[in-house]
Amino acid sequence: MKVKVHPTFIILLILCMLAGQVVRALLVFSLVIVHEACHILAARGYGIRCRSIELYPYGGTAVLDDSFEGKKKEETIIAFAGPAVNVVLFFFIQILRENGILSGAWALEFAKTNFWLAAFNLLPVLPLDGGRIVRGLLAGSFGFVPTTRFLAAAGKCLGGAFVFAGFLMQGMGFYIYEPILFIVLGIFFWIGSGKELDNARIVFLKQLCRKKERLLAQGLMPGRSLAVSRDTALKQIIDKFSADHFSLVSVMGKDDKIERMLSETEVIQGMMDFGLNCMVGKLKEE
């Protein structure tokens, strides 16, 4: 398993050190490793192998085996495992502090760092763990790609807010460490959110391709119907497909009568032949 360190994480550590926060930098680094280790342990509980870890300013990302892709329940639990350990460590150290077993600035710093790592990672935006948890919960109802698109857009908004706050703090005369930190985080969120959306489209197509294998293995799979007009773009239809159901598409005519029934395979083949923006009515003509 490879461990990759994102440049923004290195910048964060350097900024902490330049600000005289060496202990804090080492503490953040250590807790991020623990955070990611819990993601990996949760994944292994489902028999999913971790291929690599990439460390970011907010935490990190465990790159899991392809067998993980699109599994909503597993994604939710694996994503929650990281912040959960930070919450446990926070309460554990607080109990020790309140009972006089531990004291001093380092114990307080340990508790605060765990609290903020958990709280920050649970924000419901991508690429944070909170966004993955929400996607796992909502993808079944709203679709994997549309849910990812919404959460990625929220992540970009958060990134923009961080960048704006960084420049605002700079103008207000804050010490250079804080503004640069906010700007670096904002840029990362903007880039990371876009990457999540690009990956989601690839993952979703893989899910659709694997459904036939699952059907053959299980013998049956739930199905559902979609009614669309002839002018509906294939992209809109495919966004409604789910990894857990086979969809049958009814193309409706002007008199609200079914002109043609299309399987998922036919819709996807039409996308490959004519592109995502092709109207479903054109498939009838071919």
UniProtKB/TrEMBL annotation:
Q: How does it sit in the membrane?
A: Multi-pass membrane protein
Q: Name one GO cellular component term.
A: membrane
Signal peptide segment? none
* One Pfam family cited in the UniProt record for this chain: Peptidase_M50
Q: Which cofactor does it need?
A: Zn(2+)
One GO MF term on file is:
metal ion binding
Say which family it is in.
Belongs to the peptidase M50B family.
Q: What is this protein called?
A: Peptidase M50
